[in-house]
Design a protein that fits this description.
Length: about 190
């Protein structure tokens, strides 16, 4: 004996099978509505992703990698490691420059983390050598990731290299689509 419920189930599926044209129209309509929905959906080719990551860069002209490590990187790391909500701190000391990458916890407030980091870096200034430049704290934004990095060296004075870099900076900034060009590690001009 067939119950009324089973009979209704049977008739629904049977109607899809027997009225195949209606079924095809229904399938085509669902596919078309899906394509319309996809095209109407807002999308961004490279959305802004806010990861709380920063780099602390400190130029120390003329210093060996060992001196940079001992005199610049370690004092900065000591202050930075006292921050809360840290995920990791990674440093690289090279001849003439210290770079420290600070990863905060993903749940940490990005603005507050950056403010706290700047405060700790400022507190470490008194522990750094006087001839080391002021540490630059840069928040990493994936929309501002550099496409190109250039390094200048040669048998020229620091002033000559900086002048060449400034000319190169102007040329690169004049290219359409270039948002920013930074010069890092060049000595400041002094009047004697």
């Amino acid at each position: 004996m067939v119950t009324l419920h089973e009979h209704k189930k049977k008739t629904i599926w049977e109607s899809f099978i027997h009225q195949y044209r209606l079924t095809l129209i229904f399938i085509v309509a669902v596919v078309l509505l899906g394509f319309l929905a996809i095209n109407q959906m807002p999308k961004e080719s490279s959305p802004e992703i806010d990861f709380p990551i920063a780099i602390v860069t400190t130029p120390f002209a003329g210093a060996s990698a060992a001196d940079v490590e001992e005199l610049v990187t370690k004092p900065l790391e000591d202050k930075i490691n006292s921050l809360t909500k840290l995920e990791s701190v990674t440093s690289v000391s090279r001849q003439g420059i210290s770079s420290i990458v600070v990863n905060f916890d993903v749940n940490a407030d990005s603005l507050e983390s950056m403010s706290d980091l700047r405060t700790k870096v400022d507190a470490a200034l008194f522990d750094l050598p006087s001839d080391a430049e002021t540490p630059q704290v840069t928040k990493i934004s994936f929309s501002d990731v550099p496409i190109m990095q250039l390094s200048l060296s040669g048998p020229y004075s620091g002033t000559e290299l900086k002048e060449f870099a400034e000319g190169l900076q102007q040329d690169i900034e004049s290219i359409a689509g270039v948002s920013q060009v930074n010069i890092v590690g060049a000595p400041d001009r002094e009047v004697r």
